[in-house]
Write a structure and sequence with these properties.
The complex is a heterotrimer of chains A (539), B (222) and C (107).
Chain A lengths: L23 H5 L4 H29 L10 H20 L2 H15 L7 H23 L13 H5 L4 H28 L12 H33 L12 H35 L6 H14 L15 H29 L8 H24 L1 H7 L3 H31 L5 H27 L14 H31 L44
Chain B lengths: L21 H36 L1 H8 L4 H26 L3 H31 L2 E2 L3 E2 L6 H37 L9 H25 L6
Antiparallel strand pairs in B: 1-2
Helix pairs in contact in B: 1-2, 1-5, 1-6, 2-5, 3-4, 3-6, 4-5, 5-6
Chain C lengths: L16 H22 L5 H22 L7 H25 L10
Helix pairs in contact in C: 1-2
Classes of the chains: A mainly alpha (539), B mainly alpha (222), C mainly alpha (107).
């Protein structure tokens, strides 16, 4: 019946959620959060490779200083497309809509999310939004950069700004509805004894990310609408000729887009917090501090956006305020890194693929975070703005951080979702290759930025070529490392060994049901204990 | 709590499998609706923030511009929305007390008032069109504050346009709701949808409560 | 029953009609007040008064019509969340616009 209660009778076993009603129509009208997660995973994967194709074009173009492969305008379209697709159609939805949708009800002992039909609607909105963006690409692309700065986007660009803006607007509502769903689910549907401070940190991260989604995305929606209105109907509040201010656009845009990066990193932190205790066989160090850090990042993350505008003409006083707060917001992230590291101490560490991804995350996120601190200081940011230093910084946190964690999570929960074990040898090789390829791609970019190479230029001064070639070579390694998992993971569906309920001997309610779970999630009520009870026997 | 109590006019709630009982389900739905309303506040909030900043930059221009709006009509529109809010609140109360006909009349009244708001506002737009106050397309305001006046009207159309869209959606939803209430779909045991619809309508009213002084009452004293 | 997730065992009691009508009367009075005061020359106090009256009207609508104070404390907090976050947006953005002339950037 309701939330899982040991006293109530449980439904009889009828196969996993995959096999119950397997027609296409059943999948496209499903209300099962697990199936919706799979539907999202298909979309996310498609957009990842689409954004990756744009990245390939960019890195191929940058092998030659003359940038002869793409014209300047086509290069602008390539990096715009890469940014728009990767940010809104891959990174922001990735972990919350796939792993989040699948695992959240399982981790709290619920039968589904609070609003299953709304969940399906979120997926449809995501797919429709994506279609608009693909349409914009086919119609000739957009050259404003993913940041749509005015007045270029509103008055001077003659590309399909309108189509992309509509696509992102629609997808924004997908995000908002997912956020609403998760918040209500976590407040309302936790099973008996699953109190707040027994929740896995992944659930706390889903809660925090939902808060950010719900509070930030509406601002983006209206800001995009204002771009469209200014282009179409000349309603120009950003128009300096009328006394409007282009910087007003930047304030509104970054009020969303800075918290958006926390939408990208918080779920990744959640995944890492699940993986590390499992492969160290210890409780997470400082659980409560981890929770407070998550909440602190969520709240303070809304008060730092002006650090994107130090050179844009923002007042020095505001820049000072935003800079100080940007230093403050680094503190909870640092606490989390200390706690993950402290968890390793005196632990029984094993290096399965998920753990390799999680460890890679800690190192790369730390480098990205430290360089973020450098950029938070206006004195350093002023020469480094719009150089490759910034590009390297955000790729370290978003790719070295979020994408590594996403892949780690996919590997960790693959047995649970599919009931199959992937090839550990191939997986470890891919993880190591990815770490190597990633650093080869992006570390040279720190040096390039420090030496003054500007971003968003299709050509560059000849003395930057060596580092650019290294970076592009790294990108090809990285591309291979991303393709490998597609191969061996899909192969495991055919030939992989059957996974038991709990192949990793992990704690957490999702491991107390079959792999894959039945549609009802649990056939017998799971046992709730303290989080990460690795010092006790498995239930 | 017996979730399936049914009488001819007071249908029981349908409790979905992830919920314990109808009350928990209703509380979840209400919480979800409030979270959604917060997103609407931030959605319109962008326009309020833009207004605040631009008015601080151009205080005299905004005063001149606001005097071009139709204050009597705007005041009547505000009164209309406030009244419609009270009607829909009473309508939900009537549903909970199983007073079906009263509820239907109250909801119809709410929708009618909403519609009248849209008509009055349409009339305002027409007046502004005849006075050449459409930025970018047909804007002719002499005087030193011309640019600031045009900025004000950009905001005016954005704010009232999005608000009117929300009013229109509300009128349709309330109309559909009234039909369902008249068919006996809702009652004391099952009133979540009427309650959520009312919450939406109240939010639309709250937005206008702030819009009214900011657009219609600037610089009215001379 | 689910964990610690329900603070009310039964539904909220139904209020009498009179309460709604008194609130409507109060709202319309406040409307008259805000419109009337706008015609008086009060300088910047005009705006302050108008906003204060708007906040009062909103509080009435939220607490009585929307029952935001009658349900769970959680719903009450959520009802304020949007306003608080909007305040963050406005205040921090204003920290830029109001101080530009004060402390101009050296470049």
């Amino acid at each position: 019946m309701s939330t899982i209660d040991a006293a109530l009778p449980m439904p009889a076993p009828q196969g996993s959620f995959w096999s119950r009603e397997s027609s296409l129509r059943a999948w496209l009208t499903t209300r099962d959060h697990k199936r919706i997660a799979i539907l999202y995973a298909l979309g996310i994967s498609f957009y990842f490779f689409l954004g990756g194709a744009a990245a390939t074009l960019i890195r191929l173009n940058l092998v030659e200083p003359t940038g002869a492969l793409l014209t300047a305008e086509n290069y602008n379209k390539a990096f715009t497309f890469h940014g728009v697709v990767m940010v809104w159609f891959f990174l922001i939805p990735s972990i919350p809509t796939t792993l989040g949708n699948f695992l959240l009800p399982l981790m709290i002992g619920a039968r589904d999310v609070a609003f299953p039909r709304l969940n399906l609607a979120s997926w449809y909105l995501y797919m429709v939004g994506g279609l608009f963006t693909v349409a914009a690409l086919l119609a000739g692309g957009v050259d404003t950069g993913w940041t749509f700065y005015t007045p270029f986007s509103t008055m001077f660009s003659n590309t399909n700004v309108y189509l992309v803006v509509v696509g992102v607007f629609v997808t924004g509502f997908s995000t908002i509805l997912t956020g609403v769903n998760f918040i209500v689910t976590i407040h309302t549907l936790r099973m008996p004894r699953m109190t707040w401070f027994r929740l896995p940190l992944f659930v706390w991260c889903m809660y925090a990310v939902s808060l950010v989604m719900v509070l930030a995305t509406p601002v983006l929606a209206m800001t995009l609408a204002l771009i469209a209105l200014e282009r179409l109907a000349h309603l120009g509040i950003f128009d300096p000729a009328l006394g409007g201010d282009p910087l007003l656009f930047q304030h509104l845009f970054w009020f969303y887009s800075h918290p958006a990066v926390y939408i990208m990193i918080l779920p990744a932190m959640g995944v890492v917090s699940e993986i590390i205790p499992c492969f160290v066989r210890r409780r997470i160090f400082g659980y409560r501090f981890m929770v407070y850090s998550i909440l602190a990042i969520t709240v303070v993350g809304f008060m730092v956006w002006g650090h994107h505008m130090f050179v844009a003409g923002q007042s020095m006083y505001a820049s000072l305020l935003f800079s100080i707060l940007s230093f403050v917001v680094a503190v909870p992230s640092a606490i989390k890194v200390f706690n993950w590291t402290a968890t390793l101490r005196k632990g029984d560490i094993s290096f399965e693929a998920p753990m390799l991804y999680a460890l890679g995350f800690i190192g790369l996120f730390m480098l990205g975070g430290l360089t973020g601190l450098m950029l938070a200081a206006p004195a350093l940011d002023i020469p480094l703005t719009d150089t490759y230093f910034v590009v390297a910084h955000f790729h370290y946190v978003m790719v070295g951080g979020s994408v590594m964690a996403y892949l780690g999570g996919i590997h960790y929960w693959w047995p649970k979702i599919t009931g199959k074990l992937y090839s550990e040898g191939w997986a470890r090789a891919a993880a190591i290759l990815m770490f190597f390829g990633f650093n080869l791609t992006f570390f040279p970019q720190y040096i390039l930025g420090y030496e003054g190479m500007p971003r968003r230029y299709h050509a560059y001064l000849p003395h930057f070529q060596v580092l650019n070639v290294l970076s592009s070579a790294g990108a090809s390694v990285l591309a291979l490392a991303y393709i490998l998992p597609v191969g061996y993971l899909l192969w495991s569906l055919r030939t992989g060994n059957k996974a038991g309920d709990n192949p990793w001997q992990a704690r957490g309610l999702e491991w107390q049901t079959s792999s894959p779970p039945p549609q009802e999630n649990f056939l017998t009520a799971p046992t709730v204990r303290e989080a990460y009870a690795y010092d006790e026997a498995a239930p | 709590m017996n979730a399936s109590t049914e009488t001819a006019f007071a249908p029981g709630a349908i409790v979905h499998e992830q919920y314990d009982d109808a009350t928990q389900q209703r509380e979840a739905a209400t919480l979800g609706m409030w979270v959604f309303l917060s997103t609407e506040i931030l959605f319109f909030g962008v326009l309020f923030a833009s207004y605040t900043i631009l008015r601080i930059l151009h205080p005299q221009g905004f005063a001149v511009a606001s005097r071009h709006t139709d204050m009597p009509l705007g005041t009547i529109e505000t009164a209309v929305l406030l009244t419609s809010s009270s009607l829909i609140a009473l309508a939900v109360r009537a549903v909970r007390l199983d007073q079906r006909r009263v509820a239907v009349w109250l909801m119809t009244g709410t929708a009618a008032l909403g519609l009248s708001f849209l008509v009055m506002h349409g009339f305002e737009y027409y007046k502004e069109y005849t006075e050449h106050l459409i930025p970018g397309i047909d804007f002719l305001q002499p005087g030193p504050q011309s640019h600031a006046v045009e900025l004000f009207f950009c905001l005016y159309y954005c704010i009232t346009g999005f608000h009117s869209l929300h009013v229109a959606i509300g009128v349709v939803v309330i109309g559909v709701l009234a039909t369902r209430v008249s068919r006996g779909t809702f009652g004391p045991q099952r009133y979540t949808y009427p309650e959520l619809t009312a919450l939406y309508w109240h939010l639309v009213d709250i937005i206008w409560i702030f819009v009214y002084p900011l657009l219609y009452l600037v610089g009215r004293s001379g | 029953m689910s964990a610690a997730t329900r603070s009310s065992k039964s539904d909220r009691p139904v209020a009498p009609v009179s309460r709604y009508l008194w609130v409507l009367a109060a709202l319309l009075t406040l409307l008259a007040l805000t419109a009337g005061s706008a015609l008086l020359k009060l300088g910047s106090l005009n705006t302050v008064l108008n906003l204060a009256i708007s906040i009062a009207k909103t509080s009435l609508v939220m607490s009585i019509f929307m029952h935001s104070t009658e349900g769970r404390r959680l719903t009450f907090m959520v009802s304020l969340l949007g306003f608080v976050w909007l305040t963050i947006l406005i205040v921090f953005a204003l920290s830029d616009f109001t101080t530009r002339a004060l402390v101009p950037a050296p470049w």
